[in-house]
Amino acid sequence: MMTDRSRLGVEDALFEDEAHVMRQGSRQSDLKESYNKAFGKQVTVGIGFQIVRIHQVDESAETFTLDFDTSMTWCDPSLVDVKEPDWAKAWSPMVIFRNEVAVEEISKKIFVSDPSRGIVFCYIKYTATFYEILELDRFPFDRQILHLDISSFRPVNELSFAQFPERNNKIFAMPISMWDVQSAPDGMERSVRAIAASTASGTADQHGMHAAMRWAAPPTMVTPTEELLASADGLCYPRARFEIKIERRCEWYLWNVVLVTWALVSISAVVYAMPVADTSDRMSLNVTLVLTVIAFKFTFGSDIPKKAYLTWMDKYLIVAFLILALQSAEICLASQLAEGSRALAALEMGFCAVVYGLWTLYHLFVAAFSHRLYLPWAQVIGSQRVQIVL
User: pTM for the whole thing?
Assistant: First the structure.
């Protein structure tokens, strides 16, 4: 009678086949034969992550550095009742990180947690830097999904990943400078269970691969995903992506960049209090403010990421320069008109009211509703998951 795996608990589903192997007989020859048969099909490796600390997110290099622990478990029937296994010769999942820049293994502990069934537990502590494509078009109102892209040197016919039984993925990280770590979206747990159930039942997509398994454990803030990875050698390799959702804190940029830029541009409106005939003085003040804005931009230039496209901050500073440029053009035009004419007064009053009125209203909107400038998480997830690091 075939067992419905989707109705089993996570641990029962993980070790169902291995328990069946143990029931075949206690003789070593039978155990070895069952071991080869089970491993000839596929070994299920339960994997879980605990993020201890996120050190930094480097926008320029598009990397992030963190401390984390990895817990793995699998069943090795050849280690049943073995007191001191030779781990150099024992089977291992050969896990790798595909988007790693630098990985340092701090410590490693491996042992047989259940000798009666040959259940192996492996705990590894890492400090690592990973590569991540950052979407910064809304900088500094941006949200990012950081990935740990896990795979193995063993093809999918030998190994598959699953959630570590009875162990949630967690973040114990302290708050990151300039960033907030976000929790899993509401309702994700229900959709995760449905997808995981379809994967466990063997549902395949149009390419013949198993449906992607996604799961979450709110409020752990880490969302691992499992997908198959095709390689040039014609084999498919297992894959798991653990996701950490972060949101940039925009307050520093609002107070130190936006507010200062608004003040510098708004001060330029004092030229309309000067006589129209003083064209040189008016232009001198305007050019001085332009140079001040340029110098200010270079001052905090290292805090703004450099991308091939324009970010929100780039567009904002361009608008500031355009306002000052338009004002210079208006001063030149006013110098050609007769001083004291009604047309000139209407022109300058209209320009000042429209330009600086809109400039100030937009800043009031940003100050009051800055949260509306962030892209919704649903769109962030949809856009960034397309750019999987291959």
Answer: 0.74
